[in-house]
Design brief:
Blueprint (H helix, E strand, L loop, with lengths): L11 E2 L4 E7 L4 H7 L2 H8 L4 E7 L8 H12 L5 H13 L19 H12 L4 H4 L5 H13 L7 E4 L2 E2 L9 H9 L2
Helix pairs in contact: 1-4, 2-8, 3-4, 4-5
Protein name: Thioredoxin
InterPro entries: Thioredoxin-like_sf (IPR036249)
Organism: Rhizobium leguminosarum
Length: 186
């Protein structure tokens, strides 16, 4: 019996020398706000001047974080790779409350199963996730995201790094132009 190989497409856009890394927890409202600015960052900075890397920062206080992060990584293994993963992440950002608990511990999602979360994501995105979600060793990619964040001292989301350095003064509430100036050193 042979095991089918898979590849998680890196969640990276742009080709520029300046690296803007966004450590995001998909169901976190501040991370969702930051995620929704990444395309504008690429456009304003120039895809030839900046590389944007989306790092998934699962947070245990967001109860379905692990399921959602696994779905996004699973999506990156499918046709379209990172663009398919981006589509799933955009769905989470757009319907964030449907993938989160009220005050992190209550509300209607208390009775929702992981399978129902996956089905909800499939319904909104049109991406068939169940088979990819079940890839036995998909956790190696999830672990990579966790280890990378830990080695860089990342504990909260969103957190931003520019050219390998954590930027404590960069916020999801900043205008994109501020990110551009910081990333390009203007």
């Amino acid at each position: 019996m042979t095991t089918a190989s898979w590849h998680a497409d890196p969640l990276t856009w742009g080709t520029g020398p300046h690296i803007f890394e966004a450590f995001l927890e998909p169901t976190d409202p501040y991370s969702a706000r930051a995620f929704n600015k990444l395309d504008a960052l690429l456009d304003q900075a120039g895809k030839d001047k900046i590389t944007v890397k989306n790092r998934l920062q699962s947070q245990p206080r967001h109860m379905y974080s692990g399921v959602i992060v696994r779905c996004i990584i699973a999506a990156s293994t499918l046709k379209g790779g990172k663009e398919t993963a981006k589509k799933v992440m955009a769905v989470v950002a757009a319907h964030r409350e449907e993938f989160e608990f009220e005050r992190h511990a209550g509300g209607p999602n208390m009775d929702v199963t992981p399978n129902q979360i996956i089905e909800r994501l499939e319904g909104y995105s049109g991406v068939k996730l169940k088979d990819a979600f079940a890839i036995p060793d998909l956790d190696r990619e999830i672990k990579w995201h966790c280890r990378y964040a830990r080695q860089n001292g990342i504990h909260v989301s969103p957190t931003f790094m520019i050219d390998g350095l954590v930027q404590a003064d960069v916020s999801s509430g900043d205008e994109v132009g501020i990110w551009v100036k910081k990333a390009l050193g203007n």
